[in-house]
Amino acid sequence: MIHSLKVTKVLHPVELTYDGEGLRIEGDFNAHKKVKTRHACGCFPLPPGPQGPDPTLLPIDNTHLLQVFYNGKTHMIQIHAIIPQHFDDPQSPVDLYKFMYTVERGQEQACLDFCTTVMDGAYKGLVMKKRLKVLINPFGGQSKAKEIFDTQVRPIFEAAKCSMDVQYTEYQGHAMDIAKQVDLQAYDAMVTVSGDGVIHEVINGLLSRPDAHQAIRQLLLGVIPGGTGNALSISMLGERRGFDPIYAAVQVIKGRPLALDICSVAYDDHRYYSFLSQNYGITSYADLGTEHLRWMGDGRTVLGLLKEIMSGTTYGMETAVDIAMTSKETIQRHYDTAHDSATWVEMSENDDAMTIPALTDPVPEEWTKIDDNVSFFLASKTPYLARGMLSHPCALPNDGLLDLLLVRGTHGFLKQLAVFDKVEKGAHLDSKIVSSWV
Ligand SMILES: Nc1ncnc2c1ncn2[C@@H]1O[C@H](COP(=O)(O)OP(=O)(O)OP(=O)(O)O)[C@@H](O)[C@H]1O
């Protein structure tokens, strides 16, 4: 069913129509003006100029509509939306727009009904006006998280009328302390503007609470890229959009929750919870060895790897792994089936995590033992290790399995370099020196 509303913009008639999928604006003569600052809006009566395309040429679809409401004081309907810069590019960057139109006297109730219809469609199955606890690490990545939040993310959250409780992390481990004590009833989501380190702290903080199971299920986690690698963000949104704070902010408002398996890692007498990768060998030393180069951004990963490969170092390890799939074809099929069915896995009510024997228990007979010198052993829940490194292309977020890459021994600089050369598109799995298991 089509719903329509006739409004005006400086006496010019404008028609709004909503068909359940998107909102179309017809007759706005300067709709191309996008929001540049948090208080601006595109409502000045200027003729269309060369500033940009007219965003109203196509309907604004439900996912891009942030707020549609009637302001009784100004007698105006306001539409807050994000609009792609290039309509024909599904990966296009998006901009924030605010449209305002005058509602004629006597049309107030029709306008209120129209707003309710559009908002119901735009937020079907989602929480409107989310209450957000925002954690910003001012020193994450290239120390731009605060600026990213103030200039790109805050305007989107405000446009969607989310409430924000913003806190800056003040020391290492602060995010964990905050997550340990956060009031679960007070917020719909906890949003990190940081890298993966702060997300790790939040997850570990939530899981160390007496009400850990409830906390990790109830408090959704929103991720705004503000770190160096932002591996979780690019694994969820792709390499380009995973570094786009505006797109990530829209996901916090309009995305659907995705369940992610958490791995338990026991080390000495402490238990950690890991959500990305577990690393041993050159990939971990490449990371540790470039800690002081964080100013380089994610380029430091490549530099660290080159240094490690050139050194030709191998690392002794004794491991036992319970392998579910060894054949590359089976692993690919497992991924394709999950990807094609694309059903959203609701978080299971069943809390039984998969358990493995304690380190002191005997290793089960059917497990595979690795007692060798390796170049690297890299298990992951997420497909991307970093931008340009699709290390585990078949990793799935909630299949209860870890994807593993293993290179035994060392194979010379050129052969190992060839593996890393192919990792950008995930083609390294075809290399003879790489074992990939699930
Ligand atoms: N105020 C602070 N002073 C010093 N360290 C901090 C502060 N706030 C947070 N940290 C620490 O900074 C570390 C790195 O943070 P973060 O994850 O945001 O960035 P990153 O490591 O550059 O990103 P990525 O993991 O994507 O490479 C975290 O382990 C966190 O404990």
TrEMBL record:
GO terms for cellular component: cytoplasm; membrane. PANTHER family: ACYLGLYCEROL KINASE, MITOCHONDRIAL (PTHR12358:SF31), SPHINGOSINE KINASE (PTHR12358). One of its GO terms (molecular function) is phosphotransferase activity, alcohol group as acceptor. It comes from the Eukaryota. This is ATP-NAD kinase-like domain-containing protein. It holds the Pfam family DAGK_cat. InterPro entries: ATP-NAD_kinase_N, Diacylglycerol_kinase_cat_dom, Lipid_Phosphate_FormReg, NAD/diacylglycerol_kinase_sf. Residues 127-269 form the DAGKc domain. The lineage of its organism: Eukaryota, Fungi, Fungi incertae sedis, Mucoromycota, Mucoromycotina. SUPFAM superfamilies: NAD kinase/diacylglycerol kinase-like (SSF111331). Transmembrane segments: none annotated. GO terms for biological process: sphingosine biosynthetic process. Keywords: Kinase, Transferase.
